[in-house]
Amino acid sequence: MVTSVSGTNSTSATSVAPPIAQIRTELTAALIAAGVTDAKTTDAAPKGFPDGVTWSEAYKMVTQRTEDNNPATPGNLVLSADLLKKALAGTKTLAELGVTSLARYPRGTTVQGALDQLFMNKSNGVLSSALARGGVYDLSAFPVGTTAYQAFKLIEDPENPGKVSTTRYAEYKDAYAALTSLGITSLQNFPRASTAIEAKNLLEPKAELMLKMVGVDKSLFKAPTISSLNGLALLTKLPDSINQLTTLPTGTTSQALSAQALAAKKLVSMGYDDLSAFANMSAFKTGATPTPLNAVNALTQVQRSPTPSDLPLPASTSTERYFQSTAVSEKKSYGSPVRIVKTVLTKPPGERVTPNVLPPTRVVTAAEVLTANIAFWTGKK
To answer: Cβ of 112: how many Cβ atoms within 10 Å?
Structure first.
């Protein structure tokens, strides 16, 4: 349905709401298609919406504007079945929370807007209850700095506003677990507004290149569906993570494999997608492609100072900052001790308990005892 356009000024064309009869007809047909079979055009208010919502207000909630490539018109106003479905589901959620009318909200507030205001209120307990019902009891599955409301919006069910999607929650837990396996606990090094899933998807292809550079296939790990990030983390933590591997590659040890994984992580993050670029360096055998066992040697050549003249250029953009660990070890500091000069808890000298020091003792002989007795009793006569 194309909106009517004011013709008084073509440079500032504004859309005019369609006639109320047209709104009733279109919205009623959409409501019936969405499952509200008892909806009628003669109803005083559209069914499925909170009390007090008029036909025009409901129509604004479920329509979206699409571009018609005409600079003289604001575009086409189309009723969206997806928006209608979300509005109906959100109305049911509001009713479950005891909100059956939008009268207490500012004029023009949508169903989703009312839900957001309820969940942003920290004093009503609605947000905590919604998270708990979805199985979220803490924020350990989200990057450091994520608030409870932000976490809820990340895992909110797109088809059922106000409810937690267990599927999306599982995706975020898996993504954040993959990031934390490399020590990445926050998204401060990633583009602004990135989510944990987006950060994982950004690093996963690089992690695959790192495993390929080391020459390790995912069949080496016990978990058949392990991600490349988790696999790389297990390799860098060898030999402590040896129980997560089925076997080690032939001709290598766990310590050597860990060193190769760390070198591959550094090389790929610097922009070297494989080791073939180092084949023409004089430090290697001319014409021979470096093997995965040369990853440490290749990194040594990159880090040499001065830089070798035949060092190859990186094949891609550096992503070192993405792989930097953001895990900060907690250091407790109690500060320097403060010398207490006066205190009300100290008793005055006369009331203090002091130790009773025994006088020095000496072991005497029997002859000394007899002599002392004679001297004592002689004076008594």
So the answer is: 15
